[in-house]
Amino acid sequence: MGKAALERFLLRARRAVRLKGTVNMLVTSSAELRALNRQFLGKNTATDVLSFPPAEMRVREWKSFAGDVAISADIARDNAQRLGHSLAEEIKILALHGVLHLAGFDHERDNGEMARKEVRLRQKFKLPVALLEREAPAPAKKANRRRRAR
Known about the structure:
Elements: H1 3-16, E1 22-28, H2 30-41, E2 49-52, H3 56-61, E3 65-72, H4 73-83, H5 87-102, H6 113-124, H7 131-135
Parallel strand pairs: 1-3
Antiparallel strand pairs: 2-3
């Protein structure tokens, strides 16, 4: 995916979540994502996407900045191959995930709100199912229990 296409997608994603300001996007190696994850989150593992909202001081200096998103091209490529869609689509999926984080969503604490929003937006943008959706366990079916009369 070219730079212009990614910028157009980021604009659409920002508008969809009402995120004001520019987003810097870095598409790089897993080694770089691992280094960023270790440096900023204390986790010594590679990951597919990281989001960095602006520091308070930077916001005052540059109010039109929404934050940074870093994507592992290596993991995106692997996910795309495993899920049967293009690398460009996977980068858009990960970019959308990062933009949602910059907009204040947090899938670790929001009881599924971010996941539901992400599914709706992927459908709106005609993006395929993401890895998390395919790996998520199916909801348990309630057993049809009838009490026996004694």
